[in-house]
Amino acid sequence: MKESQPSAIFLKDYKVPPFLIDKTELTFDLEEATTIVTSRLHMRRNPAFGKSTAPLVLDGGEDVKLIGVAMDNYSLPPEEYRVSEDKLIITATADKFVLTCETLIEPQNNTRLEGLYRSSSMFCTQCEAEGFRHITYYLDRPDVMSVFTTTIIADESRYPVMLSNGNEVERGKTEEGKTVVVWHDPFPKPAYLFALVAGDLAVKNDVFTTQSQRDVKLQIFTETHNIDKVDYAMEALKRSMRWDEEAYGREYDLDIFMIVAVDDFNMGAMENKGLNIFNSSCLLASPETTTDDNYLRVEAIVAHEYFHNWSGNRVTCRDWFQLSLKEGFTVFRDQTFSADMHSETVKRVEDVAFLKTAQFAEDAGPMAHPVRPASFIEISNFYTLTVYEKGAEIVRMIHTLLGAEKFRAGSDLYFERHDGQAVTCDDFVAAMQDASGVDLSQFKRWYSQAGTPTVLVTDSFDESTGTYRLTMKQDTPATPGQPTKLAVHIPVRVGLLDPQGAELTSSVQGVDAQEHVLHLTSNEQDFEFTGLTARPVPSLLRGFSAPVKLRYDYSTTDLLLLMSSDTDGFNRWSASQQLAVGELNTLIKQSIDGETLSIDSQLALGFKTLLNDASLDPAMVALVLALPSQAYLSELANPIYPAAIKQARDFLKAQLANVLIEDFKRVYHEHNVTGEYQAVAEDIARRSLKNTALSYWVETGNELAQQAVLDQFQSANNMTDQFAALSIAVNTQHAKAADLLSAFYEQWKNEPLVVNKWLMLSASQESDAALTTVKSLMAHPAFDLKNPNKVRSVLGGFGQSMSGFHNADGSGYRFLADQIIVLNKKNPQIASRLCTPLTRWKKLQPELSVKMKAELERILAEDLSKDVYEVVSKSLA
Ligand code: PHE
Ligand code: ZN
């Protein structure tokens, strides 16, 4: 352990910056081993800070070597400045001056992948959140916005493409024959949006004509061998640009928009002004190598980063506590975009399933934090599901409370009022409130309170008056640092069905409608529906109108009715999940108690209806058929018995498969359409239903089904079907599973993104040798500890294997902890993310819990990065 541990910084301590930087001029003399960065910062004291003689304190990194510093061309002698661990402090400054700094950095040795680093044969940067300080000394905070001019000097034979933000304004040669390219970005921006790329790259060009008839040049750059895989991303980009004009009235501002794909990247992608940088796994797509899910992901991420140009870049965050200002809003925007491009209900179900699994787990664990956190040790740890996905739910609730039209007026006002500013979540809500006249003061508690509220619903019916009453109680559990909670404003969308499943009209506070939005604002509240003749079945929280855990004691008959008849597609799915969870919980309990599993599944009935209803969207049928995941069942459980969850799920799946074998077989064949691959909703839907049906059919052990898996693996003309066949073979321990895995590797060993999928699947295999397998994967030539995608594939895959990760002897936990300790030094962000499964130790069954905790303690004894220290120490607190 270190002698002094890193300390937290607090939102309440926010102060405006003492200095501003009007212009930033950067020169990069690019060399792999040592790059020299010269910065000329046009600075002045910030009038908003008040009169002050405070010293100038610039942020830097331990990996930045200061060569020299000058003030208005007067080179400072050592006694006039001080370099501490990560700061450059200049005691005396004028009110206005130009500060010149020369620093040396080592891109080649940068394994953190923050700042300037090398990926394959190129240079690239990543500056969000605090990466710019690893390039040069700066006021590295988002409320310091500056106009950047960037000069890149490099050897053109190796780096013919040299890019930065904005427009290329000059090109020339140095005396030594190196090429010089100058870029200028007219929009003031924080340093986290700075980007630079240099490499021998291929480009795909296109043009987008904006609504005001301006032509924008579009360019996607990749390494040469990948340029045939960017067509889909380019089309997605154009759809995004059009959609933002139509849905939000937002037009692109520069004359050029560039995207670059890099193989080594900590996250998915980054919205640098005019120069987005993508993890290649989130950009490249081709039918042979990319699954449907990945296609949709590429589209969503291209859109997300593009949308940041307004929600993030033109209007940015005042400080990092406000991260959800840009991320929550932008996720909401990309979700709506994807819904518009494909199916609204399917998209909603997928997003909610993810939220309820992963974000709810985070909100119930030791790292639980508000959407706008009050403190942090390392901001990189706060790029979380809470900030992103729950943040998007908050924006969605505002949309529900205001209605589409007023929401649009609110977003227009927000962009107009704050264009070119760095603002807060409060500013966002204020614009929404001012434009709509809707009071959002209580609603704002969603930003500051952590934890998932529970809404407990009971009901009664008064036959004499035809009045149906819902009583709702809300309660938000205590979370670290927040022992007590206040009531939040929860919009609950509700409809009522009659016992035959027909939608009823009812009256709430004098308003007649089939659907009502109830405003639950107190701890306990009654809602009355009048004009009814019989007791209805309530369809509650339609479309998942608030991120809460809603509890209502539905009978199986009610759930089957909702599943088959609700007009709200989302709640049809939700009912099926509740039914499945009920049955699975019975089985889990039997398993924990050591009983023989048995159940008379009612779910089979619901499934049968679905499988025989040709009018349904096959994608929705597939979603209903997919049993709640092990991860979701773990989130619901307390304590978690991983092996019991797996056993229960396997048992129910096999039982359903046997009962409905003929239906699954038929549906498999009905939807097994061949033809040219297209990543369009209709085809994606059919493939997903077909492959779900196959996964059940195979469970029966039927020989034809076993053969169908092999045939599909061999003959598929697209990665979706081929990989589905492979996954089914591996997950059902098909006799040929091992052969298929090696055949797959042989076929795709030259396609790194496909190899990553192979690594993931191989690492997640259930077997007594799971740990040995994962160790051999890490020694495999296809593995590379420096590449985040590969680390995620292997260690993420391993985390899904019950027999491997949750092995009773604790060897799985020990192995993961060992990897975290190694990565802590190389790439703290990735190391910190790998800790997530270990943070759940308190909820685990006692025998496993102690073993997991011991591994966290072992990690804590190491000399840790801020990133890993924060997660591990908070988990043990
Ligand atoms: N801002 C990026 C996004 O949400 C995510 C990101 C954060 C990427 C930090 C890199 C580093 O689109
Ligand atoms: Zn984002």
TrEMBL record:
Domain Peptidase M1 alanyl aminopeptidase Ig-like fold: 451-553
GO molecular function: alanyl aminopeptidase activity; metallopeptidase activity; zinc ion binding
Keywords: Aminopeptidase, Hydrolase, Metal-binding, Metalloprotease, Protease, Zinc
E.C. number: 3.4.11.2
Domain Peptidase M1 alanyl aminopeptidase C-terminal: residue ranges: 557-877
Residue ranges occupied by any Aminopeptidase N-like N-terminal domain in the UniProt entry: 107-193
Record-linked Gene3D superfamilies: 2.60.40.1840, 3.30.2010.30, Neutral Protease Domain 2, Peptidase M1, alanyl aminopeptidase, C-terminal domain, tricorn interacting facor f3 domain
Top class in the EC scheme: hydrolase
NCBIfam families, alphabetized: pepN_proteo
Function noted in UniProt: Aminopeptidase N is involved in the degradation of intracellular peptides generated by protein breakdown during normal growth as well as in response to nutrient starvation.
PANTHER family hit by this protein: PUROMYCIN-SENSITIVE AMINOPEPTIDASE
Protein name: Aminopeptidase N
Lineage, highest ranks first: Bacteria, Pseudomonadati, Pseudomonadota, Gammaproteobacteria, Oceanospirillales
